[in-house]
Amino acid sequence: MMTLRELTPSVGVEVSGLDLSSALTTDEIALLARAWDAGGVLVFRGQSLTLDAQSAFACNFGPLLRTRAGSRAGSEFIYVGNVTVDGIAGEFPAGEMLFHHDGCYAPDPARASFLYAIEVPSQGGNTKFCSTARAYRALPEALQREILSYDLLFTHQYGAVERASGHVEGPRYVHPLVIAHPITGAPLLICNRLMADSIVGLPAVQSRVLIADLLHEMERPEHVYEHVWQPGDLVAWDNLAVQHARTDFDPGERRVLRRQQLAGTTLVAYRDVARHTRSDSI
Ligand code: OGA
Ligand code: MN
Q: Best mutation site among 100, 113, 116 for ligand 1, i.e. most ligand atoms within 8 A of its Cβ?
């Protein structure tokens, strides 16, 4: 029997009683999809998943994304890790990673990511998830309104786990700062420490100060769930409803996780959705 447990009041749902290596029923998939929309992150402990089983599970929720960057470009999975497995070198091998949304420097960031833990260090290397819906709701109302009209430039150097200072060579894309969740329509604050560059049209100083304020508000512990990994964990995150980060760990210890992602689409500004709703109701 499937049971759901909230991990924090704002983000994360632990699902127990499911063996993800066997096929799920339509009802189970629908229930998981609803829980995912509500909680942003689903956590399944004690799984034993081949690559095929992980793919089959992920495909219940949408088409898989082929990795676009790094040595694994074109593949449906990567190892996030600091060792080589079956001849495949791990990516993002070392250290802390600042908060980010996967691929938000591209026009269509991944819709979701699935990370399956194979080997984990004895301490650290935790993954933190921050609710972008909750972060937006927690802002003062005047600020909520003000930022609806802003767009944010994201830049990134693939593989970097820290923010470069100064100009970044690499992919870049402008998204609305506040988007509508593709399913629930809720406003989500899309800004993050690793990839947010600047707010389009604002003077540099004002842009820097606003981004710093938003990040400070977003990363408050009450918006965050921190996952302490065990081998056999599968964690699925909605890559828009949450941003994620990783804590540091001892590079002398092995860490290997297998990641898959769902394809995403262009992000829709919340201001556009809100305008529709208003004119519809006239
Ligand atoms: C990722 C990622 C965090 C981690 O795979 O996209 O950010 O904990 N991983 O390794
Ligand atoms: Mn990531």
A: 113
* CB-based contact 130:219 (threshold 8 Å): yes
How far apart, in whole angstroms, are the C-alpha atoms of residue 179 and residue 152? 11
- Dump pLDDT digits (tens) for 210-268: 999 999 999 999 999 999 999 999 999 999 999 999 999 999 999 999 999 999 999 99
Asked if the model's pLDDT at residue 282 lies above 50, the reply is: no
| Closest ligand 1 atom number to CA of residue 244 | 7
Annotate 55-113 with three-state secondary structure: HHHHHCCCCECCCCCCCCCCCCCEEEECCEECCEECECCCCCEEEECCCCCCCCCCCEE
Cα separation of the two ends of the chain: 46
Tell me the pTM.
0.94
Q: Alpha-carbon distance 62 to 125, whole Å? A: 28
Residue 281 scores a pLDDT above 50: no
Indicate which atom in ligand 1 lies nearest the CA of residue 92.
10
Q: 142 C-alpha vs ligand 1 centroid, how far in Å?
A: 34
Domain with CATH 3.60.130.10 in the chain: 3-131+223-271
* Residue list, ligand 1 pocket, CB within 6 Å: 80, 92, 97, 102, 113, 115, 127, 244, 246, 259
Q: Which fold has domain 3-131+223-271?
A: Double-stranded beta-helix (3.60.130)
- 213 contacts: CB under 8 Å, gap ≥ 6: none
Distance 81 CA to ligand 1 centre (A): 9
The predicted-structure confidence for 194-203, as pLDDT tens digits, reads as follows 999 999 999 9
DSSP 223: G
If you measure from the C-alpha of residue 243 to the centroid of ligand 2, how many angstroms do you get, rounded to a whole number?
8
